[in-house]
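Quick question about two entries, pasted in order.
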Amino acid sequence: MEKFADEATIEVFSGAGGNGCASFRREKYVPMGGPSGGDGGRGGDVVFTIRRNLRTLAHLRYKHTFKAENGHDGESAGRYGHQGADVIIPLPPGSLIRDTQTNEIIRDFTHNMGDFIFLKGGNGGWGNIHFKSSVNQAPRKALQGKPGLSAEIKVELQIIADIGLVGFPNAGKSSLLDRFTNARPKIAAYPFTTKIPNLGVLTIDDKDIIIADIPGLIEGASHGAGLGIRFLKHISRTKAIAFLIDLSDDNYLSAFDILLNELISYSEELSKKKRLLAGTKTDLEETEGRLTELAAKYPNEEVIGISVFSGGGIKELSHAFMRLTEENVSDTEDEEPDTEDETFDDSVFDDDDINNIEEDL
């Protein structure tokens, strides 16, 4: 079975800060050497980064724990400890992370494609070099590093594509993707050949259109029937939807209504996406006249007849995909991506630490 994963639950840990050092200068000809303890290094962060060459969460299937390195302790002679190495977790575009307890979205990487520091490493502790004063020339106080943070999160992948191919099993989605692109999905004359979403790129006039072949839906999919809602979520990120209707099937006139109802049951927003109907297998004799009946039943929908075998209607459909994509570009141009800067407190101590130190001194 092909290695595809679109969900994973992982535990992440940021590094603890290194401890400060309490030491004194012990050098020849310096009989009254002062404090020389260095600060501990800060712990490593938990960082998520987007890798455009990733298409799945399979790399998170077997590794469920990610730990950043702890900061190194400070040393004598004023030497500061090294900062702990970050743990970097790569994700494919379209990923989002949720809190496993509340199911709230922590970060959606649809527009936020930059690195995201999820958990900050613990601050390093002060060495005693900081605590020298006129009343205390030999402080023996040093601070311990702050502990790191931990969290259990759920990572989900929702494929980002321009056009999503939707239809019943064996409607010809994989064959169309194979005709348009070099995706080479598994194709056979039996239902549920496609068990994972497949992506392909259709190039027209130097413009790339990403097409997603969604595994076949059946009636009741929005309630878990068949492959269920596991793959319905991938349609929500597409710019437009192409409903593939098998004209050789006797239920060709009711297929679109059933498919559309399943999508709407999953999300009302799907009914607002640009769409078209593609009647497939027009090269078969029994499909003669059925395309006309399909177009007559849905006069307000764009209906195109195609045959992957003969190539009929393929060029017309490819240009229709281009038009749908261009129409959606104008719809989303005014949307401002969320690009909030991540700001963190980089200080190695806090007010409570200072108050405790002053009391000790």
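Here is the second entry:
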Amino acid sequence: MNTADLKQLATSNRARREASVALLIAVVILGIFLLIPAKPKVEQTPVVVAATTTPNAYANLPLQGKAAIVYDLTTHQTIFAKNADAQLPLASLTKLLTVYAAVHELGLNTTVTIDSKALSVDGPDGISGFSKGESFSLKDLASFTLTASVNAGATALAEATAARAGKTEPDALAAAAAAAGLSQTYALNGSGLDVSSTLSGGYGSARDVALLAGALLSEAPSIAQATTKPSVSVSSLGGQVHSLPNTNQGVIHTPDILLSKTGYTDLAGGNLVVVFDAGINHPVAVAILGSTQDARFSDVDTLVAATLAHFAGTASL
């Protein structure tokens, strides 16, 4: 064997040894992986997310009114609204503005006298029972006027307010509406009686009515309280007593009621606003405009019940 053959043999032997070592290393590594225990498979449990939506107490309410609102007078938030900013005839809800204007301009203890103009809107039956020249404290006359919706009382209050302010009655009432922050409200007279077959004595929105009711409750709580009684009596300064029923006989059924005022004319249809305490010192205003003479009461009852359910966190009570 020559030198070349010896070199070739040596190279061949070295290659075989390197291959054997590589094979041995591979076998050892494979054995190590085979000896490591497999990691157990973890099953993924699906996560179920519970529904967190609050029940809607106002869903599908059978309201007949053209406009409605539930307004939280404590938080200044609208809880429910239906055409709440539409400007509609107010009918006797205008008397809320008249009384608010009188309280601001005249004060609760001012004497107000019934004159011929006031008696002329009292109706053919003289529903108020007032006589020309009778005088009352503003507080007593306003309480009687709102509770029994007395047109003569509202007219006398509007006259006295305008005279003290040195303005026309519409201008004096407009100033009061502005002071209360009402954007859709104006009045042509103090009673809200229709001026003609096409023109109402007062206009406003459900939102404005709610705000106005809240403002009057704050300014004159004693007057507001009178509107929550089934009937009302007033004594003139001369000692003549007048008594009438509340135009909202449902006040006895409304829980924790703080204020009530009805309105009805041919143009307006049935209107009603109430303020009730939905908790401890938590007044909420509920207003309905453009309903019917009877349905205005059931509309408000429906909204009051829905509001109590809303605060209870349920769909209904």
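Reply: The CA atoms of residues 84 and 207 lie 5 Å apart. Residues 67-312 form a domain with the Beta-lactamase fold (CATH 3.40.710.10). Hope that helps.
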